[in-house]
UniProtKB/TrEMBL annotation:
Lineage: Bacteria, Pseudomonadati, Pseudomonadota, Gammaproteobacteria, Enterobacterales
UniProt superkingdom: Bacteria
Species name: Escherichia coli
Protein name in the entry: Regulator
InterPro entries: YdaT-like_sf (IPR037042)
């Protein structure tokens, strides 16, 4: 009871403590896949795939070889997202 009384009479208000050793939540493959699937359900899959592939190329991505044809790039992107076992077949 003393700490509560002390806080009420002294005007002390505790602030939130930031724990710097907390791990940051990195979105997993499944969450990214689900987000892209939901986005492509609203917009056309070709539009979504084109935006993702263009951004991937602009940022210097080189592990996945996307073809220049939009429909083939879309197919490769969604096959990569659905790749459960991270096989080299879809890269």
């Amino acid at each position: 009871m003393q700490p509560l009384t002390y806080q009420q009479t002294s005007g002390f208000s505790p602030t939130a403590v930031i724990n710097r050793s907390q791990t940051k939540q990195v979105p997993g493959h499944e969450k990214i896949r689900d987000a892209v699937r939901a986005w492509s359900a609203e917009d056309n899959q070709d539009v979504v795939a084109t935006l993702i592939v263009n951004e991937y190329r602009e940022q210097g991505g080189g592990t996945i070889d996307f073809p220049d044809d939009v429909s083939r790039a879309r197919q490769k992107l969604f096959r990569f997202l659905d790749n459960k076992f991270d096989s080299e077949k879809y890269r």
